Structure prediction request, 471 residues.
Amino acid sequence: MEEIMDELIKERYNKLENIKNKEIEPFGRRYEITHTALSILKNFKDGERVSLAGRIISFRSHGKASFAHLKDRTGKIQIYTKLDILGEENYLLFKHLDLGDFIGVKGKTFKTRTGEITILIEEFSFLTKSLRPLPEKWHGLRDVEIRYRKRYLDLLVNPKVKDTFIMRSKIIQKIREFLDRQDFLEVETPMMQPIPGGAVARPFSTHHNALDLDLYLRIAPELYLKRLVVGGLERVYELNKSFRNEGISTSHNPEFTMLEVYKAYADYRDMMVLTEEIIIYLLKELFGTLRISYQGKEIDLSPPFKRITLFDAVREYTGVEVSEFSDLRTRLGMEFEEDETDDEVLNDILDKYIAPRLIQPTFILDYPISISPLAKSKKDNPDLVERFELFIAGEEVANAYSELNDPIEQRRRFLEQDKIDPDYIEALEYGLPPTGGLGIGIDRLVMLFTDSPSIRDVILFPQLKPTGKGG
Prediction:
């Protein structure tokens, strides 16, 4: 197969030299476009003069006449030309086009006898010579590993992949639209931080040479966003890249996209309502329905979503009565490593007993304080905090809580973790109003809305193992 590929590439390089010998520029320049493929197809006018550009994706020649399909960002359209229109030299050049070549064409529209809208080419220009054949002669790129590593090819030959990433862009656009209308302000916070905070996770470390300073890629923007609320920006959000130096799976990528939202004078129940409103707005705007299908499962996202406390969920799905976190370690019959943190224990329990049962949207409420150091305690039970996680289709999609705004209590909790951010404590001492905070995993939301089974399907360039090392 490699020998055949080498011969095909060699043949294209020979064509490249022939083009150069004709003093034709094979890697062209700006080209004036008046129409797209879609605009011509949707607003057909017989005999209209058009100019467009794109990639050749099919070609067939019948002696003195040739047909091809030209593909641009909007779709594909048939093009047609003849020897007596282009002239002998240009027609011969046209006949030797390869699949994948970019050309610009000018001509008039018409319909063939079969009714297909077509452009009669009167002149064409070389824009880029493709020196490698398209994968599998345009019949699709099926090797998953190659698809992720060479996303540009995946986008070229798999239309559904392109649709997924167009939908991702629309989802982010609509989130901004919704929050902006609610008077939230979009902000940016540092990606490199001297102290990694805002979540329990292992950070990536780096070093700033000029300052001789160790820094960390952020695991969450939370502490910086709450500083802004202290500063009077009462409604803020950030669509942010965060980084966690942990495992890779169908639902985890070391680099991921989150939405974080903070609203003054609110609590976690307000954040539940806000979460529902964001999801409902997206569904109505993009799909016109609150019902979707994900991996063969029908999901109804009509509000209100189910609400159940963590301990009640354990009781409902395991039959075990629990009233405090230590019960989870001892009564479920699971074996835990001695050095497993409370957070890791809870994740194990959720993954095994609860999350797989939460196909319909469900808020799990009121988490133990030991795994929620930044959340406000419940008034009636200080061992629990005002926090929720939203699960849909068995995956955690959102996490939120009433923010802890007591600097004395926050310092105490930081000290328990042996991890203190003195500047954040100082900010709290100036006064953080009662605040609700919300984080939504954008990648997982896109998975849900595009019926994608893996997070790698919704990240353009996911992290992969190096080739030749088990990957």
Q: What stands out?
A: The chain has a mean pLDDT of 93.
